[in-house]
Design a protein that fits this description.
Radius of gyration: 19 Å
Structural class: mainly alpha
Helix content: over 70%
Shape: globular
Order of helices and strands: HHHHHHHHHHH
Number of helices: 11
């Protein structure tokens, strides 16, 4: 039987989730971001689950898609329930997974090498820093916005640091456990949707040949994403939102 304190905590989490959803319904931008997050997860799920992979490389990408889907779902669960720091930590995982998928999209010959690599090779050749450097070189970027954004997510969410306390207890220890904050709810929604839309677009590019029903789903997602990007990012065809400054996504 669940201890009384844990049952009470779960009840509090569910109340915050209900309050979060009411807040989202009140704001068009919040609702649009949540709908676009759902659309991104839906196309990732469809290609990872419903597509019959033709090669081992496609299967590897599908496994990474499952990771991306589960991480997004975890971030949603935590963010809507008032665990903003933990929700942002999952956003960093999304960022890292999407970067790897992006690298593999432009260097497909490395998919098998990544899968076969040992721990030492995986860290040196496919670690977050190595992947960021490869993408920056590919995109001919003179600045390292990817590192800045990764470091910011690490400092405020993934690592135990004093700057991260504001996401944990913004009013001091008077708030222990989950809490509702419109400010942090907005910031988290803007971050998770930005990286997930980019991730779903990159993930889709790994599957140029799919079954007819999935072609329709891909087209539907791209149309939805372009409308969202034009409304909130100011550029419907922007290829690399990972090079944008954090923490907000344009006009929010």
């Amino acid at each position: 039987m669940l201890p009384e304190n844990l049952a009470s905590l779960h009840k509090h989490e569910e109340q915050i989730r209900a309050d979060s959803l009411r807040l989202i319904e009140k704001h068009e931008n919040f609702s649009d971001h949540l709908a676009m997050t759902h659309g991104s997860m839906a196309i990732i799920y469809a290609l990872a689950h419903d597509h019959a992979n033709a090669t081992d490389d496609e299967l590897t990408i599908q496994y990474l898609g499952l990771r991306l889907f589960n991480t997004a779902a975890s971030s949603l669960k935590l963010g809507l329930s008032g665990y903003y720091q933990s929700a942002f930590a999952q956003v960093r995982d999304i960022f890292e997974t999407v970067a790897l998928l992006d690298y593999m999209c432009s260097s497909p010959e490395q998919i098998g090498a990544w899968k076969a690599s040992d721990k030492k090779q995986r860290i040196s050749k496919f670690g977050p820093g190595a992947i960021r450097n490869a993408l920056n070189e590919r995109d001919r970027l003179s600045t390292n916005k990817r590192k800045e954004m990764y470091d910011r997510l690490s400092e405020y969410a993934s690592h135990a640091t004093s700057p991260g306390f504001q996401l944990l207890a913004p009013e001091g220890l008077g708030l222990i456990g989950p809490f509702l904050s419109e400010k942090y709810l907005k910031a988290w929604l803007e971050e998770v949707v930005k990286y997930l839309v980019h991730g779903a677009t990159i993930f889709m590019a790994h599957f140029p040949r799919v079954e007819p029903p999935l072609l329709l789903e891909k087209a539907g997602f791209l149309n939805h994403a372009n409308v969202w990007r034009e409304k909130y990012m100011g550029n419907p065809t922007q290829p690399h939102p990972s090079a944008q400054p954090a923490p907000t996504s344009g006009r929010g």
